[in-house]
Amino acid sequence: MARWEPGARDRLGEVAMRLFADQGFERTTVAEIAEAAGLTERTFFRHFADKREVLFAGQDDFLQLFLEPIDAAPDGTAPYELIGRSLVAAGAFFTDERRAFARARAVIIAREPALQERELAKLATLKTRLGEVFGERGVGEPAATLAAEVGVMVFHLSFQQWITKGEKRSMATIAHERLAALTQLVTE
Amino acid sequence: MARWEPGARDRLGEVAMRLFADQGFERTTVAEIAEAAGLTERTFFRHFADKREVLFAGQDDFLQLFLEPIDAAPDGTAPYELIGRSLVAAGAFFTDERRAFARARAVIIAREPALQERELAKLATLKTRLGEVFGERGVGEPAATLAAEVGVMVFHLSFQQWITKGEKRSMATIAHERLAALTQLVTE
C-alpha cells in the first residue's frame, strides 16, 4: 500500500500549473512536476492519468453540472427555461476560489493548439449531451440541436467573461445577463 | 508568358477533389494533381497558392457575402434583422451547383484535423468581423458579440443541414427556418 500523502493531489496540481505557465505545457514532464512537488511520479499517477488531466479533470462532473438541473425540471418546461436553469445552477460550481485557477488554465490552453482542441471537444460533448437530453424530453428537431447550441454558446460567452481580468460578478449573474441579452436580441 | 489553359482551374479543382476523396488530403501531392489533370505543377500554382486553397479559396468573398447585406441595411436596423438579411442574402451564393462540391469538401475536411481547424478559423474570422460590424453600427457589448455568435451559429447549423444527404431546400429557406426556430425557442 502506498503511503498516504495529505494534500498530494492539490500540491501536484499547483506545481504542475506553475510549471505549465512558466515553461509551457508540452515542455513540462511528469517527472519534473513530481520532483518540484517533492513527490514521486508514482504518486502523480495515483492522482492523474496524465499531465493533461491536471487541466481537464472531472469531465463527467462538468457535464453533470449542466444536465442535472435539466433532469430535475418538471416535464413540459420550455427548452429556453431549461437552458436558464442549467446555466444558473451550473454557475454555482464556478466559485471565486476557482476563478484564479480558471484564468491560469485559460492562458496555458491558449498557447497549445492540442489543448485548445481538447477544450473544444469538451464543449462539443456538452452540446451533444444537451441535444440528446432535449430530444429525450420531446423537443423535436431542429429545436433540440438549436437549444443545445444556444446553451453551450451562452455558457462559453459567460465563462469567457467570468475569467476576464477585473470581472468580479458570479458566473450565474453573468449567464443570466447573457441570456437576457439574447432574449433582447431576438425580440426587439 | 504561360500558355492559356482554358478551364485549367476547374479541371485542377475537380481532379484535386477526386484525389483528396480517394486517397486523403495529406497523401495527395500537387505533382499528382497536376499530372492527373494533364497539366504542369506550374499551372497549378498559377491558380492555387497550395493544395489547401482548392478547399478554401475565396475567404474574402466568403466574408463579404455576409457583410455586404449588413452594410446595405438602413441605420438603426435591429441586429437580429441584420442577421436575417445577412444569412438570407448570403444564401444566394450557395447554389444547387455548389452543393455537391460542398458535400464532397465536408467529407474531406472531416477526415483531417488540420483542415477542421482551418474551417473553424474561417468561421471564427466571420464571427470577429460580424462583431466589429455590429459594434460600428452602435450595438454595445455584450449584444454585438452575442449577435455575431448567433449569426455564425445559425449559418453553421443551416450549412450543415444544406449539405445533409437528401436535403433539397435552398440555403436561404433553411436559414430562415433556423432563425424562426431560434425566435420560437427564446419567446415561448
From TrEMBL, chains A, B:
Domain HTH tetR-type: 6-66
Pfam families in the cross-refs: TetR_N
Keyword list, A-Z: DNA-binding, Transcription, Transcription regulation
InterPro entries (alphabetical): DNA-bd_HTH_TetR-type_CS (IPR023772), Homeodomain-like_sf (IPR009057), HTH-type_TetR-like_transc_reg (IPR050109), HTH_TetR (IPR001647)
Gene3D superfamilies: Tetracycline Repressor, domain 2
DNA-binding region: 29-48
Membrane spanning stretches: none
Molecular functions per Gene Ontology: DNA-binding transcription factor activity; transcription cis-regulatory region binding
Name of the featured protein: AcrR family transcriptional regulator
